[in-house]
Write a structure and sequence with these properties.
The protein is 28% helix and 25% strand. It has 379 residues and is an alpha/beta fold. The strands form three sheets. Strands 3, 5, 6, 9, 10, 17 and 18 form a seven-stranded mixed β-sheet that branches. It has a six-stranded parallel β-sheet with strand order 13-12-11-14-15-16, with helices on both faces. The longest helix has 13 residues, at 324-336. The chain is globular.
C-alpha cells in the first residue's frame, strides 16, 4: 500500500529545523504484515526527546528511516498466527518488545531482550527485514515502530491493547513516556513511602517520574530543572519543591530539605552534568536511577571512594524496567484513578508537515508532549 510518512535521510542538520528541514514528507510503500505482524493505522504519535536525539545525530540509527516510536492507533490487518487481536482493536505501540526465549528474556528482563535490540539496531522488524521502501529501496524502521506515518506494520510483540474509553492522544504516551518515567520510580528504583526523591530534568519522562513519585508516596518530591518555566506544571503534578541546579545553593537546599540528601534521584535530562548533579544530591545509601539518553560517546565521572564509604550508587534504567503487557494495564489503572493526569502533559496536535517546527519547540523547551495526528484528526 501507499502511505505518507516523515522521512529522515540525514542527521545533524542545524536548527531551526523549520528552515533546515531534516524531515521530509514522502509517499512510501508499505508491505502488508507477515506472520506474527500487524498493520496499524496511526491515530496519535508523541514527539519524544529520543526522536530529537536521532535527528540531532547523537543517537546513531540506520538511514533513511521513518522516526517515531510512541503511538496509539487502530488495528487494520493482522498476519497469520495472531489470534488475540482483530481489526478495529485500539492499541499502543511500544518498542520494548521481547522474543521471549533469549537468555535475557528467560532471566525475567524482557525490556533488555538481545534479539529485539539487534533487530532495532539494524532498522528491521523482529522477524527481520523492512516493510518500508521508497522507489524500491528499503527504508529502516525506527525502534521497530516508525509511527511518524499514516500506517505502520509492526511485530505483535510491539503492541498492547488499549481500552475503548482511553483517548488515543493520551494513550500514545503509555508507549514510552509513562513507562520510562513511572517505571523508573516504581520498578527500577522501587521507591518506598516517605523516601526523599529528586527528579533531575523535566520533560515528558521527568514529569512522569514526578507523578510516579507521588504514586509511590515519596516525600519530599523535588523537581530539578534549569528552566523555571517548568516548575508550575511540576508543582501541579505533585512536586513539593522545585530547584534550579544553576543556583549556587541548589545542593544545600536539597540537603536542608532531606536531612542530608535524597534517597533516590531520577536523572531524566540525558546529560552527564545532570547525572553528576543527581549523584551529588544523594544522601548516604542513595541511588541515582538514570533514564536520560546521553550522546553515545559521553562518559561520566563520579567519586568511586565515595560510592563505598557512603554507599551511594548509579544504575541505568531502560524503559522503566517494564514488561509492557503487565505494566501498561497497571499504569492505565493509575490514569483512571486520576493519579496519572496525562492530559496536563499534552501540548497540542500537529500534522506531518509541521514536524520540523514542532521539534524546534521541543528542543527549546516550549512543549512537553506534542501529538502528531497523521490523518489530520484523531482516527
Amino acid at each position: 500500500m501507499k502511505m505518507r510518512a516523515a522521512l529522515l535521510t540525514e542527521t545533524g542538520r542545524p536548527r531551526p529545523y523549520a528552515e533546515s528541514r531534516p524531515l521530509v514528507v514522502e509517499t512510501l510503500d508499505l508491505a502488508g504484515p507477515m506472520a506474527g505482524e500487524v498493520l496499524v493505522e496511526i491515530s496519535a504519535a508523541g514527539l519524544c526527546h529520543s526522536d530529537l536525539s536521532t535527528i540531532e545525530g547523537i543517537r546513531p540509527r540506520p538511514l533513511p528511516t521513518v522516526p517515531g516510536h510512541e503511538s496509539a492507533g487502530i488495528v487494520r490487518e493482522v498476519g497469520t498466527g495472531i489470534d488475540d487481536l482483530r481489526p478495529g482493536d485500539r492499541v499502543v505501540t511500544t518498542f520494548v518488545m521481547s522474543c521471549g526465549h533469549c537468555h535475557i528474556c528467560e532471566d525475567g528482563r524482557p525490556y533488555l531482550c538481545e534479539t529485539a535490540s539487534q533487530s532495532k539496531a539494524k532498522g528491521e522488524l523482529l522477524a527481520g527485514g523492512s516493510r518500508l521502501s521508497l522507489n524500491g529501496q528499503p527504508v529502516a524502521h525506527a525502534a521497530g515502530v516508525s509511527c511518524f506515518a499514516e500506517y505502520a506494520v509492526v511485530a505483535r510483540e510491539t503492541l498492547v491493547k488499549l481500552p475503548d474509553d482511553l483517548p488515543l492522544d493520551a494513550g500514545a504516551l503509555f508507549g514510552c513516556a509513562v513507562m520510562t518515567g513511572v517505571g523508573a520510580v516504581l520498578n527500577t528504583a522501587q521507591v518506598q513511602p516517605g523516601q526523599a526523591l529528586a527528579v533531575v530534568g523535566l520533560g515528558g519522562v521527568g514529569y512522569n517520574a514526578v507523578m510516579g513519585a507521588v504514586i509511590a508516596e515519596a516525600a519530599p518530591v523535588i523537581a530539578v530543572d534549569t528552566d523555571p518555566r517548568k516548575f508550575e506544571l511540576a508543582r501541579d503534578l505533585g512536586a513539593t519543591h522545585c530547584i534550579d541546579p544553576g543556583d549556587d545553593t541548589a545542593l544545600e537546599q536539597i540537603r536542608d530539605l532531606t536531612q542530608g540528601g535524597v534517597r533516590h534521584a531520577i536523572e531524566a535530562a540525558g546529560s552527564t552534568r545532570a547525572m553528576e548533579f543527581a549523584y551529588a544530591a544523594l544522601g548516604p545509601g542513595g541511588m541515582v536511577t538514570s533514564v536520560g539518553l546521553t550522546p553515545s560517546t559521553a562518559t561520566v565521572t563520579l567519586p568511586s571512594y565515595d560510592m563505598v564509604t557512603r554507599g551511594r550508587g548509579l544504575q541505568g534504567c531502560y524503559m522503566g524496567s517494564c514488561s509492557p503487557p503487565a505494566d501498561i494495564p497497571r499504569f492505565i489503572e493509575f490514569h483512571r484513578q486520576g493519579r496519572l493526569p496525562l492530559a496536563k502533559l499534552l501540548s497540542g496536535t500537529l500534522g506531518l508537515e509541521d514536524l520540523n517546527a514542532a521539534f524546534d519547540r521541543l528542543a527549546a523547551g516550549d512543549a512537553v508532549r506534542q501529538i502528531l495526528t497523521p490523518h489530520g484528526t484523531l482516527t
